[in-house]
Amino acid sequence: MSSNTPVIWNSNMYHSKEIAEILEGVVDVYLGDFKYGNNACALKFSKVKNYLEVVRPNFEFAYETAEILLRHLALPGHIECCTRPIAEWVSEHTPHTRFNLMFQYRPCYRAMEYPDLGRHLTLEEQTDAIDIVRGAGIEDLLI
Question: Mind listing the pLDDT tens digit for each residue in 60-114?
Fold first, then answer.
């Protein structure tokens, strides 16, 4: 007896084009994190170069080949520079993506080295993030 078990790829979406091509036709659902809305934040906090140039094409490729559940962890002090550009890009380039806006951030490990990340999100930041994502026209919003 055979079963049709869906394949879910849990990823930060920071992978090569070759990996994306290998996954084509294999992955049914991409559970992808879109963390930063600009390269400067990605470099500063995760020491990752060319973040947008890698992640955006991977989300576009995934969008063309499978379903996406995009996760965005809202960061304190980064609603305008990260959440807004991500929401606007998703709305324009992958409009039928399920968008999971997460507020579970808690400062730990080396977060205290960065004053803006050394605290929890405020209620106002959470409300602003929801308004931004909804305002971008993203219809399938999970909170």
Answer: 999 999 999 999 999 999 999 999 999 999 999 999 999 999 999 998 888 788 8
The torsion angles phi and psi of 67, rounded to 5 degrees, stand at -90, 155
Closest alpha carbon to 75 in 131, 15, 35: 35
Tokens coding 142: 């999970």
Classify 45 as helix, strand or coil.
helix
* Nearest by Cα to 138 from 102, 89, 103: 89
pTM of the model: 0.93
**Kindly report the CA angle at 50 between 102 and 36, in degrees rounded to 5?**
15
pLDDT over 90 for what percent of the chain?
A: 85
- Please report which helix (H) or strand (E) contains residue 70, including its range: strand 67-73
